[in-house]
Design brief:
This protein has 99 residues and is α+β, with helices and mostly antiparallel strands. The protein has one domain. Strands 1, 2, 3 and 4 form a 4-stranded mixed β-sheet that branches. The radius of gyration is 19 Å and the shape is flat. 4% of the residues are buried. It holds the Pfam family PAS_9.
């Protein structure tokens, strides 16, 4: 979802140190600028263990997810960073440790 800029929601079962399970819902929502370019993603981790039914859990989670922004004005955005792996690590090293 992060690489492709698509929305995704999943339910996770995690385990405490004592081995007892608990549930979380995780949602990743893409955020585009006003020209439609995928810029960011917002991730939400919600504790759904206290909710009683699956329908109640998902309704609460979808309400939270609907409040996330999906677009920002492109004029307010910083210049995007280059894709991962495009930075020369030796050039970065020289910035911090000049000869």
């Amino acid at each position: 979802a992060i690489r492709t800029g698509t929305a995704e929601s999943v339910k996770l079962t995690n385990y405490r140190k004592d081995g007892t399970p608990f549930e979380n819902a995780v949602s990743i929502q893409p955020v585009h600028d006003s020209t439609g370019v995928y810029r960011y993603c917002i991730g939400v981790l919600a504790d759904i263990a206290q909710l009683t039914s699956v329908a109640e859990k998902m309704a609460e989670f979808q309400t939270l997810r609907a409040k996330l922004p999906s677009e920002f004005d492109v004029n307010l955005q910083p210049t995007p960073s280059p894709p991962y792996g495009a930075v020369d690590p030796f050039a970065q090293w020289k910035e911090f440790y000049p000869a």
